[in-house]
Records
---
Amino acid sequence: MARARIDLKRYPAFGTLTWACIVLLYAPMLVIMIYSFNELRSITNWGGFSLAWYWKAITNPQLHAATFNSIVVALSAATLGTVLALCAALAMSRGRRLRYQDTGFAIINLPLMVPEIVTAIGSLVFFLAVGIQLGLLTIIIAHTVFCIPFAYLPIAARLQGIEGYYEEAARDLYASRWETFRFVTLPLMLPGVIAGYMLAFIVSLDDFIITNMVAGPGATTLPMAIYGMVRTGFTPEINAISTMMLLVSALFVSASYLIGRAGDRKYNAQ
Amino acid sequence: MTTQSLRGDAVGIEQVTKIYGEGANAVAALKGVSLTIGDNEFFTLLGPSGCGKTTLLRILAGFEQVSAGKVFLFGEEIEQLPPNRRPINTVFQHYALFPHMTVEENIAFGLKRLGREPAEIRARVGEVMEIVRLGGFAHRRPGQLSGGQQQRVALARALAPQPKILLLDEPLSALDLKLRQQMRVELKQIQENTGITFIFVTHDQEEALAMSDRIAVMSQGEVQQLGTAQEIYERPNNRFVADFIGDANILAVTVLGDDDGSGYRRCRTAQGMEILCAGSGAPGSTPHVSIRPERIAIGAVGSMADGIACDVERVVYLGTNRQFLVCLADGLKLTVLVPNALRAGSELQPGDKAVIHVPPGTAQLLKD
């Protein structure tokens, strides 16, 4: 018999605990999804199947503006964050070792560790102090900051997997530094870049706390709009919006994971 | 060596030193290496790992900067040029084929960077694929090729831009024995047909002996000996070379003086046996000598006139050869190698008495 690893299933409460976690995590989402198809204007009593709330959500002009804002912010912040993360990853893992490299790494990843509310208040105070008008621009700046670590981690992981000899081979074959990056390094790290971009995009799309703090009047994003709707009364329309957001998130995160994994398999197979 | 004499050669390396690290942690990978490599030469840097051969290759390619010294390419100083400005290409140990490009794109890479016309690139790619016998693989990716095929792509990619110098960094080490032997012959042929100067790095002495016009045996950042395969094998000039290249019996001797007429030195081993050695050594000095096992004759007692009596301690059948470990009456142990085709000593068993003969001049005096 092969030496077995510790078999968790043999612990008495293992099954119960697992199910408790799964139910607590996913049951609320399931309920939200089910009631998004409710015929009644209730989120507790089932009255038959209907897509009416989806239609209502899709045709709600307030939500249009908020969705548009959210997408503008997510696209800008993810793009800026990914570019900065790419530069940081290249500087950290290629070229000579920098002074304070470990400190730099910690600073890049700081947004992952600092409580979001602290970042939110800090950002707000900063914007007020330097006198930047609150609005979409401030949301984009704040989002870019916390998008960087989410983009950085998959990019750096990918870059670490690329052996330095590919770049040497390119240089040996008459490629300048730029051509080496353009034709060898970038294509090889592209799966990591795409994965990082998608992760950053979805993190920005979902954010509420920081956004709520640094958004000026008028610059409402989708999560803020949903919050506003909840305060004035809960209808299955919110369930419908939430379900659609969940779907988009799931798609992006899965795609990010699959692209990253496909890249690893494609280039590390040999 | 003067700069003037370096100018006529393909590669001139003058007092090249490479030091890694700083202060107390400094390690000298190359300690003032000087050598020249002729045009069209198949030149090999041979040595154990850590001897500095790969560092020297990387300096030639431009991946490492010299700490001191000069590097010439056809008379021009190149140590300041970046790798992409040197007409030198490399076949990497791990091939380093671009995994996101097809075989064809890999081979065309250098030509594209040089800004050649598409038609010319297509023609040249076809040509080198012919040379390395890779027809039909143009649209495969490196991941879909075997090790041997990847090796050929790497070679084709490095040959395509028609470099003046081709550097090969242990390119055969990842292949299995049969393929390696076949590639040795092919590499030598390609070198002769293309007329490109090859600089080959290896730790495999057989590979070095089989292909090279000249070999530089390196150890501890220095060139120990530079010469043709035959020179370094037959006349190793120090203990390291004698020991590293092939098998050798290495004995401590005392030089007694010149032998009259023959040109050899009379020497006595620590155990008292007298042998005639090639090479130079002052009378009274105590150098080492190297005797190749296959140069010693062995036979049953009474089979040769001036044989030295010995006991057979071990017999190892090696296919082509038979290896004997013998112990002389004075306690000296020697390894003797006899081709099985000669049948000499084939009846000898461990424990038997036998005789050996060391012909004059087979022992080579070494510098320590």
Note: Chain A has a mean pLDDT of 87.
---
Amino acid sequence: MDIFAGLINGFSIALMGTNILFCFLGALIGTAIGVLPGLGPAATIALLLPLTYVIGSPVTAIIMMAGIYYGAMYGGSTTSILLNLPGEAASVVTCIDGYQMAKKGRAGAALGIAAIGSFIAGTVAVIGLTFFAPPLAEFALDFGPPEYFALTTLGLLLAVTLSGGSITKGLIILIVGLLLAMVGLDPISGKIRFTFGSIGLQGGFDFVTLAMGVFGLGEILYNLESTMKTELVTRKIGKIFPTLKDWADSKWAILRGSVIGFFIGIIPGGGSVISSLASYAIEKKYSKHPEEFGQGAIQGVAGPESANNAASSSSFIPLLTLGIPGNAAIAMIFAALMIQGITPGPFLVAEHPDLFWGVIASMYIGNAMLLVLNLPMVGLWVQMLRVPYGILAPVIVLFTTVGVYSVQNQVFDIYSMLFFAALGYGMRKLKFDPAPLPLAFVLGPMVERSLRQSLLISGGDLTIFVTRPISGTLIAIFVLLIVGQTTFFIKRKMRGKKTTAT
Amino acid sequence: MKKSERIVAIITSLGGVWIMYYGWHTLKLGSIHIPDAGLLPFLCGVGLAVLGVVWMLILQWAKEPTHEGPVEKRLWHRPLLSLVLMVLYGWAMESVGYITSTLIFVIAWQKIIEREKWLKTMIIALIGTFAMYALFVYLLKVPIPPEFFAR
């Protein structure tokens, strides 16, 4: 099936009544959680994972999950602009100039350019996804266990190094995720691992309980500590359609943001946060008036908001073509696919073309829906910011508890989830980024299987990982990354010592 | 923060050593030709043990961060209390059924965690319980634990 035929097929699926409805629901929920500070897209998709059992059709379920993910990127700008508080992590930089614009009475223009930029970037990235994903999937058909081992380990390492936090802590969380994935029966030898005599653990931990615990309840517990009260900078939004001057000022920022976001989104661990930071840095560096940045420059809103939306769409490329989730939210979608009995990877295009093309086509539709949801309805989202956390928190607790119970109808899952909630809370308290945990948990079985299969194929010859061209290249990048990071760390320490000495 | 981080770093290292032993002794490493179930846990144990030590060294080198500007007051007892409430809720859901346990849970949450007035507490509890019941039972057709008096 060629790309255009596939896309037409995709639109015929995405335009079906149920799929349109769930695409809209995903975009709506996504925008809502993007607007509400304290609950990110990964947490929301985690909370809704049990719904995938009820929805039934994998295409419909993934269309909704994808809608939540890119919808959250749209909604995140609202709180950044009006509250100086990012609705989700990728909108951190939007606070800088967006909030300043709002203080100067230009909240509408900031919200408008954020939504329009997001729409353009989202659409550009989906076009890229349409043309880039099928050839990449075809290329990945040649991958064997050594390539998969090299790719998954490189992906995990990138997820840690690019997350921006402490690399040591990131690696610890990564290993904890791998170990949690090993609980239960060993898939090759059938031995029972890390169950400590518990029958409930023999089947291993369920991804839903892990995701809901660490991301859903863990975040709720951490937010309960906070005493900070936020206030809307303005109740008047003003004109939301940008003026001709706004357009002229931000058109290149939107285009650059789209391209930067698209390419960073493809890299595992890259994602929306890094792309928005990179876009802001580039806009400031190449601006004729860099002094305006931080004072309410419209490019400082247009660029990062475009970049994070482009990244959210292009991060589907490694998932749909290689079966590698690049960030926590995409790991949740990976899990949703697995729940439906579908293994994402290079065979997805050939084996499940309806799903592959249906989801891509739904992204075009979803982006258009989000433009409608975000521009004329912006006042409604502002009203939503008034829902007190004291009501929201117990509602989420009820939802997660009943949701996790419904998966297998056993209370053991609720206790597992609470264990993960405590773990997630502890991680946040100790400044651990929880994002590598679900990635390692999801990719853990693939890492172990491909490592052991590679050793079996080669008769214990470890050179199998470096003598094959693709795995050799990936391992070389892996080594370069470690050497580079170590050199950077030592140099920084030496420089620090020199400064203290002088 | 540094003290608690040091404790966690030591636990990480010791945990890594225990996992190495568990992988090597209980699960068995196998050979390089035919690796057994303990190989990857053993390697992970090595990783955790080393990273725990690295973390401790970093903490040793790092300067204590200085806070500038107002520091947000954080209430650590609220998450602890809510976690206890959630454990009790999980137990109660199986023992007395969904509706009764949920009503009690939401009331307890609003009174203990949020310190709300009785009227608001009861309104939230009743609406929350029955809205979730309607969502899961009628809309999503999910089985939930029956009430103890209906068993």
Note: Strands of chain A lie at 184-185, 192-193.
